[in-house]
Specification:
The protein is α/β, with parallel strands linked by helices. It is 40% helix and 13% strand. The chain is built from 13 helices and twelve strands. The strands form three sheets. A seven-stranded mixed beta sheet has the order 2-8-7-6-5-3-4, sandwiched between helices. α4 links the parallel β3 and β4.
């Protein structure tokens, strides 16, 4: 019997699937939409809900201590132990809106985004550009370019780009961007770099030294294995000192000052990126779920997770080759997720076959996105391709 109160200890990750709630015969390949549920997360969420039934037992000071412990854990696990750089926000859209509010943008300037970029990292920039008289520049993979080449080409063509707002892996198919190369260019042209890592944080490492971003944002319910409503914002040192938050609330201010109710003097913000902490995010359920998820991430380690997820996507690619379906592969995809690209005439038939077989994935943009986590066995990836191959033969 697994102790669901603690992370599942599995140094080589061979039996990592046992840490997850069983998927009832399904092959769940949609972590890029929502993570499979850890046993420890399910237990932590239930226990937190039970505690809510007894509010008189809840202490704000105790919850605040847990929040700071969670912030330290997230920093140690993902952000080079940079505790002061992290804020807790409710969504990627909130974090992007924070970046858009703070980064300077003047008339005639531009913000660069990827073609078909996720709306959370597009809508705020559209609004900001409209207000500032700036414009959106779209990097497109024309002429066989990959995303990195597309971004660099767009920067060559548009010298007024002042913000590069991109991802590490495109949400459609996992195609990876070389953020080190892009960061070197943005630094050279004095452009800000804003990264939405919702589709890679927890499955690929962060390199703050190489990227030197202004802001990083990521949701907690995908590759971080947590819950909706708790996301992360990392801010560069400049913005920790002078950034303006989306909202003003008491818990982001120094406790000793905020309760003086001095109408003539605004209390100081708490240290670091805590000025960007959102109000209402900190509650027992979300904190408990995030605590359990981070405990498991730390037990496994992001490099180990990436290595073992790469084995699954590599097995998928090898099976496609073996069945003569190499043209269906996504070139340059992330270690942890990819997409199948059947011919348009077969796409709906393959999607229907997957549905009949209990293979859960996202059907979007002419592709079938496959995003396994460690709950999926390597052999299951062979089965997925076998199902697709049967459609071709029929």
């Amino acid at each position: 019997m697994i102790d669901t109160t603690a992370p599942f200890a599995d140094p080589d990750l061979t039996h990592a699937a046992a840490a997850f709630v069983p998927a009832a015969g399904m092959v769940y390949l949609d972590t890029a939409a929502h993570a499979p549920c850890l046993r420890s997360v399910l237990f932590a969420g239930r226990r937190a809900m039970e505690a809510r039934a007894m509010p008189w037992t809840q202490s704000f000071d105790a919850l605040d201590a847990r929040v700071e412990a969670l912030r330290r854990c997230a920093a140690m696990t993902l952000f080079d132990n940079d505790v002061e750089g992290l804020a807790i926000v409710p969504s990627a859209a909130y974090g992007i809106a924070t970046a858009a509010r703070n980064l300077p943008l003047n008339r005639g300037d531009a913000v660069l985004v990827l073609e078909d970029q996720f709306p959370s990292n597009l809508l705020a920039w559209q609004q900001r550009c409209t207000a500032a008289g700036a414009s959106i520049v779209v990097a497109r993979r024309d002429g066989g370019m990959d995303w990195t080449e597309a971004v660099l080409a767009a920067l060559d063509q548009h010298p007024r780009v002042r913000v590069v707002a991109i991802a590490q892996a495109h949400w459609h198919d996992g195609a990876v961007l070389d953020l080190a190369r892009i960061a070197a260019r943005t630094c050279a042209i004095d452009s800000a770099l804003v990264l939405d890592l919702s589709q890679s944080l927890g499955a690929m490492p962060v390199d703050l030294a190489a990227w030197q971003p202004d802001f990083i944002i990521a949701v907690g319910y995908k590759w971080l294995l947590g819950a909706r409503g708790l996301a992360w914002l990392w801010a560069a040192p400049r913005w920790r000192d002078e950034g303006v938050a989306i909202e003003q609330h008491w818990s982001a201010r120094e406790d000793a000052e905020v309760w003086r109710f001095d109408a003539t003097h605004a209390p100081h913000h708490r240290a670091g990126a805590r000025r960007f902490d959102a109000g209402g995010v900190v509650d027992g359920e979300r904190i408990a779920i995030a605590e359990a998820a981070f405990a498991q991430l730390r037990a496994w380690g992001v490099p180990g997770i990436m290595q073992h997820l790469a084995e699954r996507t590599a097995a998928l690619d090898a099976a496609l080759d073996a069945h003569g379906l190499a043209a269906w592969k996504t070139p340059g995809h992330a270690p942890h997720f990819t997409a199948l690209r059947p011919p348009p005439t077969l796409l709906n038939s393959v999607a229907a076959a997957f549905h009949r077989e209990g293979i859960v994935c996202t059907h979007r943009a002419g592709m079938l996105r496959l995003a396994p986590h460690l709950h999926v066995a390597v052999d299951a990836m062979h089965h997925v391709v076998a199902v697709a191959a049967r459609v071709v033969r029929e």
